Amino acid sequence: MKLIYPILPDGRFKALTLSFDDGRVQDRRLVTLLNRCGIKATFNLNSGEQGENRIPLCEYAPLYAGHEIAAHGVRHPGMTAAPLPLAAQQVLEDRRALEHHTQAPVRGFAYPYGEVNAAVAAMLPALGIRYARTTQDTGRFDFPQDWLHWDPTCHIFNDLAYHGGKFLSRTGLRKPMLLYVWGHSYELDENNGWTLLEDFCRRLGGQTDIWYATNIEIYDYRQACARLEFSADADRVYNPSCRDCWLYVDGQTVRAAAGQTTSL
Ligand SMILES: [Zn+2]
What we know:
Bound molecules: zinc ion
Shape: globular
Distance between the termini: 12 Å
CATH architecture of the largest domain: Alpha-Beta Barrel
Radius of gyration: 19 Å
Strand content: 15-25%
Largest sheet: 6 strands, parallel
CATH topology of the largest domain: TIM Barrel
């Protein structure tokens, strides 16, 4: 019997994504650093929280170009503390306002304060949200089983250098792995944060075997992989989606071309 796993675009086995919340002015320095190192991030923004320490709405599109803009509630609401219909309104209105500036559908969300319960998670798909990030560090390199409870690997101050080194040192992989780092750019002003993150980006950036992706790019790619249809004896795969998917097949890398049936 063949051993088959979906892997990452262009036959890679490693993906790196970062996620930063609240849209503070330190995002400017952060985006410059990420762009220099070719690393992609998702920025979770509160469209109704404006002030001198926040990135103004009119700057969203040019500043975050090439990265993902995701929702974080208009006023940074505690989603389990707020009445549910009002929590829903905070999500939908944030999407609407962000989309007005980005000119693209906003489909990601990060739970403010990490607050989530079953009722909150269950309503998000009806509000157009496809994935939502928690604040529960796993210390692992796995992909989420439940996209509405997407637990990151580590916070920027939770052994970042250790997790980065461990991720880089893994070789001979069969299954794909994901390093997911989250935080707030304003936190970097304390505790030697900028030096720490600059070191991390220098080490992790520019690697040919790493896929640098935003959260929604990972979601979309994994959804395409989840739609692959395999023949019963695993000698063919049909890819009904509009994007190529890659597979590990007994030590070989196979591209399952978009809209095609591919022999394995
Ligand atoms: Zn926040």
